[in-house]
């Protein structure tokens, strides 16, 4: 680490602790040449997730899009935004923990449906009806029957 005062490249770490958010590490350092102290922050570098769309195109993962889809499914339902944000965080963490860095949209959709099934059944059915693009009432009824069977 280069000293901001004299430019010397060697320093020693005096103190190291996580920040309040636990997302970075704060390091207090001392230059081995001029003996002045300075602070550095260390962050985890993550590789970006790439979403493979149905048409084969690729774009970066956008948690905002996922959140807006979940919010739309939960309109006029007793589900707080905090719960939906936590669901998005859980889905994103699952995606980052998978070995795949290119994720097809259907995997994201399935994870979103799993979370909605736990949160609110009506929101789940709404999301599933759009996501699975039910062609007729029979496919819709099959999804409802599966939901009822899983319930009891």
Automatic annotation (TrEMBL):
Organism of origin is Youxingia wuxianensis
**What does the UniProt cofactor note say?**
Binds 1 zinc ion.
PANTHER family assigned: TRANSCRIPTIONAL REPRESSOR NRDR (PTHR30455)
Q: What's the stated role of this polypeptide?
A: Negatively regulates transcription of bacterial ribonucleotide reductase nrd genes and operons by binding to NrdR-boxes.
Where is each ATP-cone domain found?
A: 49-139
InterPro entries listed in its UniProt record: ATP-cone_dom, NrdR-like_N, RNR_NrdR-like
Q: What is the protein named?
A: Transcriptional repressor NrdR
PROSITE patterns, A to Z: ATP_CONE
What NCBIfam families does UniProt report for this protein, alphabetically? transcriptional regulator NrdR
Q: Which family does it belong to?
A: Belongs to the NrdR family.
Which GO biological process annotations does it have?
negative regulation of DNA-templated transcription
GO MF term (any one): zinc ion binding
Residues in unnamed zinc fingers: 3-34
Keywords, sorted A to Z: ATP-binding, DNA-binding, Metal-binding, Nucleotide-binding, Repressor, Transcription, Transcription regulation, Zinc, Zinc-finger
Tagged with keyword Metal-binding: yes
One matching Pfam family is ATP-cone
Keyword Zinc-finger (UniProt)? yes
Phylogenetic lineage:
Bacteria, Bacillati, Bacillota, Clostridia, Eubacteriales
- Which metal ions or organic cofactors does this protein require, according to UniProt? Zn(2+)
Q: Which HAMAP family match?
A: NrdR
